[in-house]
Amino acid sequence: MAAVPRPARLSRAAEAQEGVKNLIVMRGLVAGDPLPTESELMEELQVSRNSIREALKALQAVGIVDIRHGFGMFVGRISLAGLVDELTFHSRLTLQNGKNHLVNLIEIREILESGLVRRLIELEPAADLTPVAEVIARMEAEAQAGPVSPETDRLFHDLLYRPLGNPLVSQLLGAFWDIYYQLRDALGAPDEPPGDVARRHRDIYTAVLAGDRAGAVAAVHAHFDGVRNRVARIRG
Fold first, then answer.
1. SS3 of 74, please?
2. How confident is the model at residue 118 (pLDDT cuts 50, 70, 90)?
3. Which of 70, 102, 131, 229 has its CA 20 to 30 A from that of 221?
């Protein structure tokens, strides 16, 4: 009978990574809390300084550890910066190869926002959308003078879903926006007239305010029609 192969043993640095993560969890540390020093981690985890440093560098790269030179080490905060960089890079590659990775990203964001507007309408008590109304007024003023600024557009979506109280929503939508911004030269200027951009956003706001689930979802889809048309232009 053939022997069952043993799983590969983790390197000392990989073991140190797991040790630091377990230490954070077992001590109940949260984002921003200070971590033990290198020497203390060496003693706690029984590994060499090189292994600790290699482990900390890897954990810093994925946002689990925040190393502030001159101040110490801390539990990292959630960041999607690495994801943004990777998706932006691969989107550039697909553009060069005659394909368009952005189409997939837009589909995911559209599905996400279609669900979010439903959740927003279901909130009890109803969400206070006064800040959203103020952004729409700014958007409409911008549309009368010229293009709607990307900052105002981004702020609309951020404020609209803020009453849901889910910080990951803002992080994910922000990641999509960062990717679009980094690819702005390839995307070119929007095809829609500024007035249409403002109107589509007001339609989303009006439907949510009225508690119209079907209308809100339809308005989200109409909004993304403009985004899809812009991306389709560079697909050739």
1. strand
2. very high
3. 131
